Amino acid sequence: MPKRVLQGVVVSDKGEKTIVVKVERRFTHPVMKKTVRRSKNYHAHDETNVAKVGQTVSIEECRPFSKTKTWKLIEGGAAAPEATAAEA
């Protein structure tokens, strides 16, 4: 069975080797027929502490690292637009 891969935005990097990623999903409401956005936070393992708040990252399902941490960082994406502008 393949491991699930999700993409989201880092909302916290305060923990040691841990990041919190907000993953947003969109679906059509069965009754109202409108597009609804729902989001959920996932705790992910970041071995090298490379992910920063605002980055778009990919996380993959893995063995449990702790009670709440069952995902790991597989790819750090591009930085947030405001972070890029601040560096320039």
TrEMBL record:
GO CC terms in record: ribosome
SUPFAM superfamilies (UniProt xref): Nucleic acid-binding proteins
UniProt keywords, alphabetically: Ribonucleoprotein, Ribosomal protein, RNA-binding, rRNA-binding
One Pfam family of this chain: Ribosomal_S17
Superkingdom of the source species: Bacteria
InterPro entries in the record: NA-bd_OB-fold, Ribosomal_uS17, Ribosomal_uS17_bact/chlr
Function: One of the primary rRNA binding proteins, it binds specifically to the 5'-end of 16S ribosomal RNA.
Assembly with partners or alone: Part of the 30S ribosomal subunit.
Similarity field: Belongs to the universal ribosomal protein uS17 family.
Protein name per UniProt: Small ribosomal subunit protein uS17
